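Throughout this chapter, every protein is written as a compact record of paired, labelled lines. The reader may check this reading against the record printed directly beneath this paragraph:
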Amino acid sequence: MMYTRSLALQHLARSWRWRAQGGVRGSLFQLHSSSSGWQDGLDPEDPWEEAWDAFEAKRRNAAEAAADRENAEDGVAMGWDGTMTIDKVLLDTERSREDEGADWEFYDFSRLVFHADTDALNRLTAVYRELLPREGGKILDVGSSWVTHLPEDRTFARVVGIGMNEAELKSNPKLDSWQVQDLNLAPDMHLETETYDAVLISFAIQYFKFPEFLLAQFARALKPGGKLIISWGAGCFSSKAIKGWMNRDQDSRIGLVLRLLASAGFVDAHVHSEHRFNPTWRGADELIVLSAVSKAANTRQTLIGLF
């Protein structure tokens, strides 16, 4: 016996109801056993059409995400604005991840969590207090979320955040402005040259598939003598971290980041080993912090090598 799509769904509706879950950005639909009929605004006479449209939109989004990944790789290969090529540090195989699904789906759910314990975060704030301008200064927080670990006793001219989740960014009281941008699909941030006094990457460097390209942009966006501060801990969302990160131990990761900084033209790289552990409390989380300085404008060189 042949059923049309509408007849099949009407038959299914007798014992089940569809519940939309955040449009096509979350799980497409969930089935719930119910005798209360249809709800959540779906058409009870022909629910298939809306369900089918949502399914098709999700399928198109997945196809577009795959195309975006290819375009991102092509764009990075051309160099920022087509004017520079970039030293290649990571192997192509090291850029893959356990979960290659769309990042916007993974980060669509707000996670108002800390990535290290209070002691480690206080150590990170201590580094910021030491390195950031005492008053004023424009800060770029990359991989930003609902909290930026800036000193409470400092006032900055402007703090800009780039992250993946709108709700988290809106919840961050330190940010004066922010933008949602997937730096694996759209790695060109179009940053103005010599604009920022510091760029912060806290607990995010492991997720970037094209770190060479991103760091080269930060080198241009920083004022001469501006600071890039990169930090991470022992844990992360491992399925979204690149294999080049997960396959290294902590000391090897430090070596990798130092190579990335050098490839982007940063100087005076420093490992803040004094903040790695709390010598008086062995139970505190590990914290790795590296900083480097942007070259003066007249000493910057066009990066060489084909990415």
